[in-house]
Amino acid sequence: MGFTSGWGLALGSVLLWGSVAAAQDRNSGITVLVNDSAGVKPSVLRKAEREARQLFDAAGIEIQWVNCAEKDECRHMLGPKEFVLHIVHGGRTRSDFVFGEAFLGEDGRGQYCDIFFDRLQQTQGDVNLALLLGAVSAHELGHLLLGSHSHSGIGIMEPRWRQEDLRNVGMGRLLFTPEQARSMRNRISAAPVRVTMSGNLYWRTGDRFHTFRREGFWAERF
Q1: pLDDT of residue 1
Q2: Which residue of 79, 149, 204, 207 sits 20 to 30 Å from the alpha carbon of 164, by its own alpha carbon?
């Protein structure tokens, strides 16, 4: 996912359908383990989590956040409905406008994503940093729930955001589409499927996934 004022993807109309999603089955839920290696201010992180929660709530999905710097609940093998959101200073990407990336296996499934916090700070413009962090987090988690090639031409899963899109982030108007929401709920409610990954899935607070290898993986980038 990325941002530049030069890209020409128009947002068009955003599908505001929170009242529709609210009527859906509310049994869909995930747990997100947040590993903050960028030293985000606690107030910013809490507000970002609230923003991301609202975006997923509108899609009929409940999120439980576990901040690994505050709790010792992150040292375990991930369950099928658990995901890791790792906030880092920067990433090794071809463009400095890439905000994050989600790591997917050959089957299109994954449980780990990175957010590049320094880049958000550099490009936030008039948008509140916490709201932008929440929206980018929702975007990357969306990749993990939607699978490969999940960018779209409208809404929060657009691959590139321009100034108009950032304004919509600030107003809470950049959402998942109904089709995306349905796909994510189906993925969550489906029978557990083992995610095939190379390396050890255990991890510790403050560490990168030092035993995790990217062979056989590709990154879905913002």
Answers
A1: 64
A2: 149
